[in-house]
Amino acid sequence: MRFALCLLPLLAVACGPSGTTSSTTDTTTTPTAPSATQSAPTGATTEGDSPSAAPRPSPPTEGESMDLAASSNAFATDLYAQLRTKEGNLAFSPASITLALTMTWGGAKGETASQMAKVLHLTGGQDAVFEAAGKQLSVWNDASRTAYTLRVANRLFGEKTFTFEDAFLKKTATSFSAPLEPTDFASSAKAPETARARINGWVEKETQDRIKNLIPSGVLDTSTRLVLVNAIYFLGSWVTPFPKASTRPAPFHGSKGAAKDVPTMNLTSHFKYAAVDGLRVLELPYKGDELSMTLVLPDDKKGLPAVEKQLTADKLSSWIQAASRAKVNVALPQFELSPSVYALRNPLSTLGMPDAFDERRADFTGIANPTNPSNRLLITQVLHKAFVKVDEQGTEAAAATGVIMGVRSAAPRPEPIVDFHADHPFLFFIRDVRSGMILFVGRVEDPAST
């Protein structure tokens, strides 16, 4: 019997028993528990301990940062193409999913590793990619930063009686600050549910209670041997906040044509803006000027499907590069998105990595290499959940007036103002502007719905 390997990127990845399908509502059967005769994992922390983080590496070079962003963003738009057929609002973190899958790829071999690298658009060997990812994480987790909060955490929850490869444990701990936490999945029928509660509790803590119940009941079972979790949390304030007094109801025209009033924020200020390819692009920077939200709004109120269809990493980059500073009259609805858990097994298989989920073909012997091949690992499911909230909040602002006396001159020409009224479905991207990496991506079809 092949054992289950679970991925829970940030917003989360979960695993189910061997041979289950990818729906989070799947009914699962509990396989007979394998005999737990292996020794405890080497290099693991004691169950319940809070392991100390590995020393943080130096920041990535510009080339390393750009390469990581290019890979992650290409994967982001590929995955978006798979998920966009879902109705309603959409939100996920490609950075979170990429990190969790990259950790897993670090223990993949042969065709399994080749397929995963192609889907993730990874270039270079595993050691080089791990080193660069570790450096990027050190930048995101900068404890001295005060302008905004960005925290990325990784953890391995491994069956406490199962043996894992020392090399894999060392490099995930060093590069991803992802220690192995010994966990009981197999000692009894109740053990998987106890483990699920423990892992979900860790995710809730790391996401400030925004991501709850990442792993639904019944997903883990006694065949589960490893759950890899990545959690990402971001809290930022606009450089130019929206005045709360200017928020008022305004009609939003949903994808099905019906309009309904939603709380809409209003602000006129200078932002990067572009009108190109039948759409408008607006960049709203967060305090610290290292992250921003990029909004993509089609000119046609029913034009979002056409925009989604042509969305690629290169196309998005060209839209962003076309933007220049302008005075913009912005109308943006408040929204809070918390979609249900996304099961990514089928989308990832469709993108080109089916072997990772196949009992006969999966090769993760770099993670664990038991003597009996029937006890080797495969991925049973990848689960993901995101939370995004946008409102007026910003930092306290100050203003100063300078009275300059001089000679008279001709009256200045009024600066033109362009409109960006998001009164119909649009896309958003929360990006690290230093590298261009997309941290979160989403679609707002109904601001009044989660």
Automatic annotation (TrEMBL):
Protein name: Serine (Or cysteine) proteinase inhibitor, cladeB (Ovalbumin), member
GO MF term set: serine-type endopeptidase inhibitor activity
InterPro entries registered for this protein in UniProt: Serpin_CS (IPR023795), Serpin_dom (IPR023796), Serpin_fam (IPR000215), Serpin_sf (IPR036186), Serpin_sf_1 (IPR042178), Serpin_sf_2 (IPR042185)
Protein family: Belongs to the serpin family.
Residue ranges crossing the lipid bilayer per the database entry: none
Domain Serpin: start-end pairs: 77-447
Signal peptide residues on this chain, from the entry's feature table: none
PANTHER family, A to Z: GH10112P-RELATED, SERINE PROTEASE INHIBITOR, SERPIN
PROSITE patterns, per database record: PROKAR_LIPOPROTEIN, SERPIN
CDD domains found in the cross-reference section: serpin_thermopin-like
Species: Chondromyces crocatus
One Pfam family this sequence matches: Serpin
Region (Disordered) location: 17-66
GO cellular component entries: extracellular space
Top-level taxonomic group: Bacteria
Low complexity: compositionally biased ranges: 17-53
